[in-house]
Amino acid sequence: MDEVEVVVAHSQRATLRVGDVFLKVDGDPAHADVEVRAMAMVPVPTPAILWREPPVLAIAAVPGKALGVLGEPSSASPAAWAAAGAAVRRLHDAPLPPWPGRALDDITAELDGECAWLLANGVLPAEVVRRNREIAGAALRPWTPAFIHGDLQITHVFVDGDEVTGIIDWSEAAPGDAMFDLATLTLGHEERLDDLLAGYGPGADRDVIRAWWSLRSLKASRWLIEHGFDPDAPGCEFDVLRARMQEP
């Protein structure tokens, strides 16, 4: 029998790997509902669904390896990053899913709440929080909704050579701001943005992508801390926020 590998585990969900099968266990069945529906709709490669028995969703491993990991340089080629950009563009150009996305007012209120928590608990210097909240404001504007992945972390895009072989973890898919996906994929890998956009094509707004780097990092920090992750690890969210202090 293959060994059981714990890929990720926290109070909300866990993912186990047994050979070439991933078992995703989630206390909220709505997450798996969205994942299954989204993967059936999107024009990009996704894992095969093997079976579903709530609260467990079994999916097949995709070939290749992740585009990279947060906190380490990506070894993927510029062509692989461009291929990822082209795949994301196909997703964003696809017909919208029929379920709603996050409202701008809700995102703004959540961001302000997270900034207040960071300041009240002295997690980061106040000037870092305030400067990044200022930068994040550029993302808080009306957008034309696109079909977004919603959690397009670098570890969720798999490549084999210069080809995208699969995009995983679709539970946050919804109509939303296309720039959010581009920012999430390049978070902590800002030097690869040009390669990504070479494949994505026209229409990307670098100022808004930069704003989403700040916004996502501010908004995620408390959750990461409370679930046993370290946003202060080298190259991770706190470094992303500190890097914005060096910009004009």
UniProtKB/TrEMBL annotation:
Report domain Aminoglycoside phosphotransferase positions. 40-212
Give the stretches traversing the membrane: none
Q: Which is a Pfam family this sequence falls into?
A: APH
- Give coiled-coil spans as residue ranges: none
Top-level lineage group: Bacteria
Q: What is this protein called?
A: Aminoglycoside phosphotransferase
Organism per entry: Actinocatenispora rupis
